[in-house]
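User: Can you write out an input/output pair for a complex, sequences first and structure second?

Assistant: Here is one pair. Inputs:
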Amino acid sequence: MVSPRISQKIAFTVLFALAVVVIAPIVVILFVLVKNGISAINWDFLSQMPRNGMKVGGIFPAIVGTLLLVFGTTLFALPVGVCAAIYLSEYAPKNRLTRFIRLSIVNLAGVPSIVHGLFGLGLFVLFFGFGTSLLAGWLTLSILILPVIITASEEALRAVPMGLREASYALGASKWQTIRRVVLPSALPGILTGAILGVGRAAGETAPILFTVAAFYLPHLPGSIFDQVMALPYHLYVIATQVPNIPREFQYGTALVLISLVFGINLIAIIIRYFYRRAKRW
Amino acid sequence: MNGPLSENVCSNQRVRETPLRRLLSKFHSFKERMIETVILVCGYLSIAIVALIFIFLAKEAVSLFATENFFEVVAGTEWYPISEPPKFGLVPLILGSLFVTVGAVVIVIPLGVGTAVFISEVAPNWLREILKPTIEVIASIPSVVVGFIALLILGPALKSIFGLPTGLSALTGSIALAFMAASTVISISEDALRAVPVSYREASLALGATEWQTAYRVTVPSAISGIVAATMLGIGRVIGETMAVLMVTGNAALIPYSVFQPVRTMTATIAAEMGEVVRGSPHYYALFFIGLVLFIITFFINLIAGMFLHRRT
């Protein structure tokens, strides 16, 4: 029988080792991407159209495509998500129906991204006749990130102390006035954090855009919301597995740009959250 | 101080109701009702979307059985969608998903729960402050990037370590997915461990138990339903993951006999084949049927995870 002290030492060492095993791949991924990708990144790579079957030139349309997807998705998902959160936090009664709404949100969050893609194809591309287009991609990605925005916004709204609402009611404000002028402004940083995290997710997703918006190779920018666009994650998939003889550094460079974009978006969220926690008035 | 207060009193004294004022206040309450209706609709929207997803998948999936026999699809062992006649046996794909998922879960449970215990019970504060955001970073890495790195580095590494004919196998997929699911398992398990009252730990320590004995005899058992929920959600994430497995599992739609063989999962099949399929063909409906199966599987996994999470509170 080992003494409890020694078995504790062994156990804690093992736990530490497990944590290291979890962390190590991130370090490896970032190291490999930066080491191999940095040489590909220059102004031409970022600002030029791909040429010659994507073997020469840059990834400009893919960057623009991903930014367009991200902005449009936010435009659709943010108002709807915040309204849903307001309903759950301020209006929803405690009954079976509300529990059912919550269950739906949890399940929506768990729907595989490729199934979102199938749904987007069936509903937006074919049934509504939007075709493979920006609009179809926006709507599909909006549904994908809706649960993220709802959950984060509701949490932010619930964190606003009851006293602020009561003070507003006591001054004669109506329920909506209270929400609009008191609750929402106080919860805004939290809502923004959640929205940005959702947006970061949308920027990196490939499966939902496969059949709804992404173009394999399209060396010009979209002219309307019914056009296809190239997108960074799909472009990486294409040049890594679908087209032979793409220079390795193009693949690493694209991956590096994609991950920088996603991390950049997340970093904004983290910074907002940091200042929010420091500046909290209650 | 005096000014605004007296102004307020004045405005509260508007007893005289002119028709214009009545109209204005009617307009305001009408506007509020409109806004509140919009909010209500958005609140219920999630239910509608989930229902719509199910209906759409089911509608297309059912059309498959106009031409195909249900049992030949569900129990068929051959997936040859473009041969003549086509065969839509799902068994190889289901087994592919099962192999990859079981492998990933076997890896991620000890790693994830162990790391969660380390973060919540062992790590000093400064280390925790480094580890927690790093774990969050894992969740934000796009799956196509994980697939890319696994394709170029993990695959060749496993190939030379085990002396395999190819590095693209169920095992490669399992490892990549375990890494991706780790953040889900760790975050939710850690929340569950944190939710265990400090008094439980103090009582155990006061009885002379070491910190490790307290962790595995008291804290972990108290948090077990949260940990189970975390694992379930991790499984849900793994089953639904698409791009990474599409890139690294080799995509052979054959019945696998070992984790070192290439497999093709249900998700990868949809992603790889939907682009070239003719709309309204049996193949198209078959891919929607796979989507429906995935939807139902993840639905129940989330349901069970939700039940375990609720039990905790």
